[in-house]
Amino acid sequence: MPYINKGRSARPTMSGKPRPGGTYNRNRRPQFGGRGGNRGPAKAIINHSRFINKAVAPAEEIVYESKHKFTDFPFSADLMHNITQKGYVTPSAIQDQAIPHIIEGRDVIGLANTGTGKTAAFLLPIIERQLGVSMRPSVLIIAPTRELAQQIDEQFRQFAKGLNLYSAIVVGGMNIDRQIRDLRRRPHVIIGTPGRMKDLLERRELNLNNMSTLVLDEADRMLDMGFLPDIRRIIGEMPTDRQTLFFSATITPEIQGLTSSFLNDPVTVSVRTSETSDHVEQGIVEFEDKDHKIFLLEEMLGKQDYDKVLIFGETKFGVQRLADRLNQSQISAAAIHGNKSQSQRQRALQAFKDRKVKVLVATDVAARGIDIPNVSHVINFDTPQTYDDYIHRIGRTGRAGASGKAHTFVPKRRS
């Protein structure tokens, strides 16, 4: 059943002090949230019923039967050792179906939900091929966000441990001089975001003439974020004789046009499931005003089963203020948003992964591509701009067949 608020018990004010007589004043001017004069784009109107869904028990899932084991793939003994060390035995659907085509050198369009293991699907064949390649750099991996680029780089380093293969990460929000030094060391693989790559191209510090492999990860998100001109500029500097691997959660006419421009006779591997996770219990939380909204949130977070909670807010300022408020209320929280440096964002993510904080409050920068295991709840404190954003937000829980819960705050309808 959806989480629906009922009743009006005595509630504290935003200062944390109870009102005289323990009553809740609906007419008081709200003190929490607010966007000021910077309102940004108008939101799409999403029917609240789309935020409500009863989860299917994981036991009812039709388990994918892999045709391969990782030992069936022609990986070297050293790479296979690293794969085994990470506990990989049976490939996921996207890995099972995409890896053979990538090994053959085919261009691949991979359509898969987030959290299905697609990063390993393209990294493992790339690492195997780099073991016999002297031309450096020869692989370019483009991701929409700093966090996803960092995650790909971390996985590359784990799989390539002891193999004398090196990567460089080039993203905004980090020292560009250090990134230039890393590029001048001629790494095998360059991983980054479109804006910083374009900047480095214009500075003549990024040479793509010898690139043999291109990976576009979360391509739909990059289009949503307006990166298409930068991507076209970057790919225009690469050889046409290359292998291109294109991964996306959705396929739209615009994306189809993109694939026809950038890929050569691609094979399509689609392992997409339903548009929202079958294992995510989705419901709404009705609030009366902003004081009531924060009270309900703190009440929810006080429950024992809310042990690793990802909360989405709309603005950088609002996200930071919410995290500060939760900490003041003795609910351990960290925040990630665009005003944070990359190192600050990484520390916040790591603290959340390691359960040093119970709550991570984020803007939509965290909705795609970040691998945060065992998130018990996703809470949309502010409703998303679009239903597609909602899908990607709640995809942070209920991953890999596990159960999860998602709550979306909506204003209570007046009778």
Number of domains: 2
Specify the number of helices: 13
Overall geometry: globular
* Rg estimate, integer Å: 23 Å
Helix-strand topology string: HHEHEHEHEHEHHEHEEHEHEHEEHE
Write out the strand line-up for the largest beta sheet, numbering strands in chain order: 3-4-2-5-6-1-7
Can you put this structure into words, describing what you see?
It contains 13 helices and 13 strands. The strands form two sheets. The chain has a seven-stranded parallel sheet with strand order 3-4-2-5-6-1-7, sandwiched between helices. The chain is globular, with a radius of gyration of 23 Å. The longest helix is centred in the middle third of the chain and has 14 residues, at about 145-160. With about 425 residues, the protein is an alpha/beta fold. It has helices at about 75-85, 95-105, 120-130, 145-160, 175-185, 195-200, 220-225, 230-235, 255-260, 290-300, 315-330, 340-355, 385-395, and strands at about 110, 140, 165-170, 190, 215, 245-250, 265-270, 280-285, 310, 335, 360, 375-380, 405-410. The chain has two domains: about 20-60 and about 275-410, P-loop containing nucleotide triphosphate hydrolases (Rossmann fold, 3-Layer(aba) Sandwich), CATH 3.40.50.300; about 70-270, Rossmann fold (3-Layer(aba) Sandwich). The model is unreliable at about 1-40 (pLDDT under 50).
